[in-house]
Amino acid sequence: MDEIDEYEIRNKNIFHFPVKDQEELNNALFYMHSLYEYVFSGHIGAPVHEKLKNGARVLEFGCGTGTWVTEVATEYPNTEFYVVDFNISASNADNDNIKFIKCDILKKLPFPDNEFDYIFSRDQYNFYGKNTFYEYLSEIFRLLKPGGWLEVEYILNYHTVNGPIITRMVNA
């Protein structure tokens, strides 16, 4: 996709959306979730499995349909999951170890510094312009504990020589 025509303005910030229809978007998000799960042979690419088994604090930055956090929270019941997004739907109901927080993810989030052991974010670049993307990264690093892990999954739309992960994704 060379250009994203659909956008929405919230609090003077422009959010770009690759599709307009919500059902189409949800289907695309589920497809992408399944593709990432296949490519990484599971839900998580970072080496945090032991930490999550023992109990940790995880932040998902932007959740889409909530599929990733729901599946991972079931797999790691001792871990606390927090999800921030500007659009939390009724289907994103809190459960025992997930807390959904509706907020402007371009502003300072309602957490203290160094709060999370693992921060996960997928395909968020479309929602930010060049200037606000750096603010997004700064906020993520403010929240990440020293020694914590950040996992950002995003498919770049450039013609490059693909490594093994992208090759596996393209051939899926």
Automatic annotation (TrEMBL):
One of its GO terms (molecular function) is methyltransferase activity. It comes from the Eukaryota. CDD domains: AdoMet_MTases. Residues 58-148 form the Methyltransferase domain. Pfam families: Methyltransf_25 (PF13649). PANTHER family: 2-METHOXY-6-POLYPRENYL-1,4-BENZOQUINOL METHYLASE, MITOCHONDRIAL (PTHR43591:SF24), METHYLTRANSFERASE (PTHR43591). This is 21230_t:CDS:1. It comes from Dentiscutata erythropus.
